[in-house]
Amino acid sequence: MSHSPLIASLSRHKLTVCLLVMQVALTCAIVCNVASIIGHRLAQMQLPSGVVENELALIESISVDESANHLAKHDADMAALRAIPGVTMVAAVDALPFNGNNWSNGISLVPNGPSPATATAFNGTQNEAQVLGMRLVAGRWFLPEEYLPLDAAHDWAGINHVPSTIITRTLATKLFPSQDPLGKVIYPGDGPVRIVGVIDQLLRPSLGESDASGYATLFPMLPDTADITYVMRTAPQDRERVLKQAQQVLASLDNNRVLRHPQTFTQMREDYFRRDRTMITLLLSAALGLLLVTAAGIAGLASFWVQQRRRSIGIRRAVGATRRDILRYFQTENGVIVGAGVVLGVVLAYALNMLLMQHYALQRLPWPYVPVGVVSLCLLGQLAVLGPALRASSVPPVVATRG
Fold first, then answer.
1. Fewest CB atoms within 10 Å of the CB: 60, 149, 202, 337?
2. Residues 6 or more apart from 186 whose CB is under 8 A from it?
3. In the chain, where the domains are located
4. SS3 368
């Protein structure tokens, strides 16, 4: 089929064609980035936390008495919680995946050097790893003598004195690619800390948009603050009962405290991603609405052009054009318009992504989303024009003789 009539027809409607091309381009750019954001959030929601989620019950205790010996109170609290029927182990921790208590620091490989990674520091009692069910893939757990003494500095001051650390596999790969991290020295503070173990996975308390969600370090420091989280490991079916009894036990030991967020780890994870699920629903609705508007614009313009060209279509039919020729003409015309739109849309998609990366720290647009978006819009354009094109192909040759 000669494309000369097609080009001539489009050139007579420059403004209309340009507006439709821009609509398709903007739709392509927005839909590609929305799909990328949704895909990234869904992937984050499926990330394994690195702990035995269905066996953990949590409760946060905040002591009002700042002058109290918090380490001694933690020991007494944990002893009482272990006595609850069904509780197998108890640990006191300062942070957990998804709880938002993110104490992070830059990790250097030389004193006062650049930080190739920023990792969360997790502190807990000596059985923290066993209670949470972390999986050691290399090295060993902390030795009892490696924990800082009770009268030593903790928190930010203590990080300069800890002798050893256990890091996640993800952080080990970032710091020492293609190397064995065991025995290597890192600088999370001013002093050197030797890596003695590597765990499979442990997510940070707050997940970012980058790939650093698994950058975590464990330090042999006992949490000694007034705000502490007790983690109880029990059978999945006993978690709700254990939580109720834990509140009663802790309140009876010391009523000069505030108990907050009694929940299972599963509930905490659900709460953490509640906003993400809402955001995904809104973005998906907006993207589908934009696609429907674009499809309606393509179909509406095609219907208008069919109505305008009925006599010329009848003439073409009278001189020998088949219904298939007419159908192919309108599909090709639509393909040219949508094709120009998606080419421009690819450029706009990456420009929009760079803007989002700069202002909202979003990830780079993965390239597979672009061809998927291009193909989807081209198919949408062909489906939208199919109805008007079929009506055009059904115009009889006799229309050519009518005034």
1. 149
2. 107, 108, 109, 165, 167, 175, 192, 193, 195
3. 4-46+274-401, 53-265
4. coil
What pTM, to 2 d.p., does this model score?
0.83
3-class SS shares of the chain: helix, strand, coil, % to 5: 55, 15, 30
Instruction: Calculate the alpha carbon distances from 13 to 4, 9, 104, 295, 301 in Å.
Output: 15, 7, 59, 19, 11
**Digitized pLDDT (tens) for each residue of the chain, 403 residues in all:** 555 666 666 677 788 889 999 999 999 999 999 999 999 999 999 999 999 999 999 999 998 877 677 788 888 999 999 999 999 999 999 899 999 888 888 999 998 889 899 999 999 999 999 999 999 999 999 999 998 876 666 666 678 888 999 999 999 999 999 899 999 999 998 889 999 999 999 999 998 766 789 999 999 988 878 889 999 999 999 999 999 999 999 999 988 889 999 999 999 999 999 999 999 999 999 999 999 999 999 999 889 888 888 888 888 888 888 889 889 988 988 899 999 999 999 999 999 999 988 888 788 899 999 999 999 999 999 999 999 989 988 888 877 566 5
Distances (CA, A) of 379 to 248, 276, 283, 297: 62, 30, 21, 15
Residue 165 DSSP class = E
- Residue corresponding to tokens 């059978």: 235
Radius of gyration of the chain (CA): 32
